[in-house]
Design brief:
The relative contact order is 0.11. The chain has one domain. The longest helix has 33 residues. It is built from 2 helices and no strands. The protein is an all-alpha fold.
Length: 65
């Protein structure tokens, strides 16, 4: 696992936070909520992919299957 993944997740979090703050200041709370949910989904797909790679490497290390 590279440190790049942590920086990517942090960058996505910062960008989503800034966009949500701008939308909330302009009284667009509903769109701000949708943007935050979209950011959460993006990060979760990244993490699920990494967990899948982790399980694949564990299977290959312990010669499972």
């Amino acid at each position: 696992m590279n440190i790049d993944v942590i920086f990517k997740i942090a960058a996505i979090g910062i960008i989503i936070t800034v966009i949500c703050q701008i939308l909330k200041k302009s009284d667009r709370d509903d769109i701000a909520t949708l943007v935050s949910i979209a950011g959460l989904i993006i990060v979760l797909t990244m993490v699920i992919g990494m967990i899948g790679e982790l399980f694949d490497s564990i299977k290959s290390i312990f010669s499972l299957y």
